[in-house]
Amino acid sequence: MMKLYSFWRSLATFRVRIALNLKGLAPEVVNVDLMKGQQHAADFRSLNPQMLIPALVDDSGRVLSQSLAILEYLDEIRPNPPLLPREPADRARVRALAMIVACDAHPLIVPRVRNYLERELKLDEPTRLKWIHHWIGEALGALETHLGRDPQTARYCHGDSVTIADICLVSHAVGTKLFDMSLAPYPTVARIVDTCLKDDAFARAHPLKQPGAPQSGAH
To answer: Domain 3-81 has what CATH class?
Structure first.
C-alpha cells in the first residue's frame, strides 16, 4: 500500500495531498512532526537522506521525494484527471508557474531556513518575519503579473482545468495566510485560490484539516 510521510503544516506535503485527492488515491499517512525534529530520526533519515517531507512510498516500496517530482509521478501512474496540459509550450508554462512557488519562494521560508536564521545568524523574530514576508511577496507579485496578463489564464492558472500550477499556487496562498499576509493586493491569485479551495480535493487537503493541526489559525 502507498504510504505518505506528512506533517499538517508542511506546504510541500499539502501539494501532494491535493494531487492524491484529485487522483482518488488514499495512502496510509505517517506523521513526521517537523516542530519536534522527527525528520532527523534515524529511521526517517534512512528513508529520505535529505530529511525532508513529503516522502511517498509507492506500492512497490520505492521511496519518492520532492513534491513536484511526486506530482508528476502521480500524474503518470493515474493519468486522469491530467495535471499537465498536452502541448509542450503549455506544459512549460504550467511548470514554470509551479516552480515560482516550489523552487524559488517556498525553499526560503521552510523550518530549516527559519531555524538557521534564528540559531546561527541570531536574527530576532521580527527580522525573521520580515525575511519570510519578503520572499512570499516576491512570489505573489510575480505570479499575479504572469497570471494577470496571460490570456491562457482562465478559471484556473491555465485554462479551465486544474494543473500543478494551481496546486502550488494554493499551497503558497495558504502559507501566506499562515504568516498573516493578505492576498488582497493580488486579485487574480486570490480569485484562482478561492475557486480551487471550493473543490473538495483541495479543501480536504488543507493544513488546518490535518491531524495535529491547531483548532484555529497557526503561526
So the answer is: alpha beta
Phi (first) and psi of residue 63, to 5 degrees: -95, 125
Q: How far apart are CA 59 and CA 80, in angstroms?
A: 19
Inter-CA distances, 167 with 1, 43, 74, 122, 206, Å: 24, 29, 13, 34, 11
> Which pTM value belongs to this model?
0.95
**Over its length of 219 residues, how does the chain's per-residue pLDDT go in tens digits?**
999 999 999 999 999 999 999 999 999 999 999 889 899 999 999 989 999 999 999 999 999 999 999 999 999 999 999 999 999 999 999 999 999 999 999 999 998 999 999 999 999 999 999 999 999 999 999 999 999 999 999 999 999 999 999 999 999 999 999 999 999 999 999 999 999 999 999 999 999 999 888 874 443
For strand 55-57 and strand 3-6, is the pairing parallel, antiparallel, or unpaired? antiparallel
Q: Where are the domains of the chain?
A: 3-81, 88-208
Query: What are the strands, taking DSSP E only, across 32-140?
Result: 55-57, 63-65
**Cα–Cα distance for residue pair 170/147, rounded to 1 Å:** 14
Q: Report the CATH number of the 88-208 domain.
A: 1.20.1050.10
**Rounded to whole angstroms, what are the CA distances from 71 to 67, 120, 133?**
6, 33, 27
Cell of 132: 519570510
Cβ-contact 3, 28 below 8 angstroms:
yes
Concatenated DSSP letters for 64-89? EESHHHHHHHHHHHS-SS-SS-SSHH
